[in-house]
């Protein structure tokens, strides 16, 4: 039966040759997994020359790997590529057999392969002598098994919650916290005094983690090499107890998730003031108001739409302060403007098969343009507000008031150009979004990976190109004559606005001409 599960997983991987980028995409994914995992493994293997350092590094690494795998269901629930256990709920398969099959299937794939190569390299790095290599290999494989078991256990435990709105809110908060933590660590690494503090703290944390199950797997070979058999036995007991508890936890959660149905009834906050029920689509402006109110209501209620806005705020405030020094830091807010503008993308894909209602309600040129202008208005109001706060905070912290006109001009140009590019590509490069997604990372459906990748790359490229005039004027303002900063404040956003105006009208005409084909593409998302 375990071999059958492995065969099913291999079949799933093999069937992807006809989807997305096809066989070429699979080969590229395999090469990336081998290259990245092998490169990390090679770097870890080089720590073999410093046994004490290697032991502390591996203790931190193993604990971090288990933690990352465990919390991943909260961040990216719904994008797991392992065999879905719900498919076997009505089949006469015992729980232990189902667990073993799901464990094996979870170990087959590109990500597990990359992790395995990295962990095998860590096994070489922690082996102080070649005679210990078999033991370190067993410990490394044990870390991978522990990652899978605890990840599956938490996913099964929270399957009902993660499918609800509150669960998506929780996942959004965890994702944002991890993103913020990344920036804090980046700040520390860019500061020499903080870097030395971080290094000493990492050593202290590593010694504490040595008594956790993943950390114990890193220390067992060192204890055996030193002849500390009592310590090695104690750590082995910790590891075995963790495996036993994790396996039983997974079994209980799996049994519960397959035999019970959770309630999805939840109270929701009122969205009064965001959508005016008196507005009707009788003109371009009223259509734009109606669509903008609907978009802002959805931003308020849908965690999948709120999460990118938090990212915009973080990128706009923290990133400029991290990557740039001095009073010119405000120009880094350009990237926050570009990111805010991209939130107008995939406006047709979000509707799925419900797009046919828009085809009926907004089936003429005036209403089609009003619909796109409504999407643009919602993006500009929300994104512009976040961008204004970001520029103000960065300017105050870095004392960059003299550069403020150029900063505002460049950032607004980026916001307008990215918004226009997002709406243009929504009509010219449409692709489906999974309508049942519970993760912001589940952004494409099988068979449309190439279109999604092309649309994303084209969006950023078009946004940057349209913002070039304002950027050139800002550079002239900083290097030639300060008066060019004021020229950038006026000319940059004006040119980007004109470009956005034109491409929105072009996109609306494209939508009217190709609406059935666009519906056929985006409706696929309803099945995922």
Mean pLDDT, as a whole number? 79
Distance between termini? Answer: 27 Å
Elements, N to C (H/E): HHHHHHHHHHHHHHHHHHHH
What's the β-strand tally?
0
Main pleated sheet:
none
Q: Label the structural class.
A: mainly alpha
The percentage helix is over 70%
| Poorly predicted residue ranges | 77-81, 192-199, 263-273
The domain count comes to 2
Which radius of gyration do the C-alpha atoms yield? 26 Å
Number of helical runs?
Answer: 20
Task: Name the quaternary structure.
Answer: single chain
What is the strand content? under 5%
**Morphology call:** globular
Plain-language structure description:
The protein is mostly helical and 528 residues long. It has two domains: 2-259, no CATH class; 284-527, no CATH class. It is 74% helix and 0% strand. It contains 20 helices and no strands. The two termini are 27 Å apart.
How would you sum up this structure in a few lines?
The chain has 528 residues and is mainly alpha-helical. The chain has helices spanning 2-15, 22-45, 51-76, 95-106, 110-126, 133-157, 159-162, 165-189, 192-209, 213-226, 229-259, 284-301, 303-323, 334-341, 355-361, 365-398, 404-428, 449-466, 468-479, 483-522.
Overview features:
528 residues, mainly alpha, 2 domains, 74% helix, 0% strand
List the helices and strands and how they pair.
Blueprint lengths: L1 H14 L6 H24 L5 H26 L18 H12 L3 H17 L6 H25 L1 H4 L2 H25 L2 H18 L3 H14 L2 H31 L24 H18 L1 H21 L10 H8 L13 H7 L3 H34 L5 H25 L20 H18 L1 H12 L3 H40 L6
Helix pairs in contact: 1-4, 2-5, 3-6, 3-8, 3-9, 3-10, 5-6, 6-10, 6-11, 8-13, 10-11, 12-13, 12-16, 13-14, 13-16, 14-16, 14-17, 16-17, 16-20, 17-18, 17-19, 17-20, 19-20
């Amino acid at each position: 039966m375990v071999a059958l599960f492995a065969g099913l997983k291999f079949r799933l991987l093999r069937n992807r040759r006809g989807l997305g980028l096809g066989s070429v995409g699979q080969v590229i994914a395999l090469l990336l997994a081998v290259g990245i995992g092998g490169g990390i493994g090679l770097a870890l293997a080089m720590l073999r020359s410093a046994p004490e350092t290697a032991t502390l590094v591996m203790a931190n690494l193993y604990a971090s790997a288990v933690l990352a795998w465990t919390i991943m269901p909260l961040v990216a629930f719904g994008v797991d590529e392992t065999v879905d256990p719900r498919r076997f709920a009505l089949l006469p398969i015992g729980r232990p057999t189902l667990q073993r099959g799901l464990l094996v299937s979870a170990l087959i794939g590109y990500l597990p392969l990359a992790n395995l190569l990295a962990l095998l390299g860590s096994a070489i790095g922690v082996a102080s002598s070649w005679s210990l290599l078999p033991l370190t290999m067993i410990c490394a494989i044990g870390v991978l098994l522990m990652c899978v078991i605890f990840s599956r256990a938490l996913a099964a435990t929270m399957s009902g919650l993660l499918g609800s709105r509150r669960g998506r809110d929780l996942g959004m908060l965890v994702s944002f916290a991890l993103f913020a933590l990344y920036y804090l660590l980046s700040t520390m690494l860019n500061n020499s005094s903080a870097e030395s503090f971080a290094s000493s703290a990492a050593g202290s944390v590593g010694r504490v983690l040595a008594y956790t199950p993943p950390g114990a797997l890193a220390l067992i070979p060192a204890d055996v090499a030193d002849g500390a058999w009592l310590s090695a036995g104690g750590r082995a007991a910790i590891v075995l107890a963790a495996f036993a508890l994790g396996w039983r936890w997974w079994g209980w959660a799996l049994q519960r998730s397959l035999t019970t149905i959770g309630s999805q009834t939840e109270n929701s906050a009122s969205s009064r003031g965001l959508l005016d029920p008196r507005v009707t689509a009788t003109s371009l402006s009223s259509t734009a108001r109606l669509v903008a109110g609907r978009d802002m209501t959805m931003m308020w209620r849908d965690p999948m739409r709120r999460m990118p806005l938090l990212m915009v705020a973080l990128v706009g405030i923290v990133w400029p302060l991290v990557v740039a020094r001095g009073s010119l830091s405000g120009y880094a807010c350009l990237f926050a403007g570009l990111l805010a503008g991209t939130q107008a993308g995939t406006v047709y894909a979000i509707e799925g098969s419900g797009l046919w209602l828009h085809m009926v309600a907004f089936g003429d040129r005036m209403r089609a343009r009003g619909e796109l202008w409504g999407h643009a208005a919602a993006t500009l109001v929300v994104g512009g507000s976040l961008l204004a706060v970001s520029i103000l905070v960065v300017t105050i912290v870095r004392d960059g008031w003299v550069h403020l006109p150029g900063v505002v001009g460049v950032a607004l140009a980026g916001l307008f150009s990215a918004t226009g590019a997002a709406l243009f590509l929504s009509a010219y490069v449409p692709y489906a979004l999974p309508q049942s997604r519970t993760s912001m990372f589940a952004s494409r459906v099988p068979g449309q990976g190439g279109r999604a990748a092309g649309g994303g790359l084209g969006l950023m490229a078009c946004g940057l190109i349209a913002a070039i005039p304002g950027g050139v004027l800002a550079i002239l303002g900083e290097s030639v004559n300060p008066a060019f900063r004021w020229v950038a404040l006026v000319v940059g956003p004006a040119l980007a606005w004109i470009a956005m105006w034109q491409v929105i009208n072009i996109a609306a005409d494209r939508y009217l001409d190709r609406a059935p084909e666009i519906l056929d593409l985006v409706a696929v998302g309803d099945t995922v």
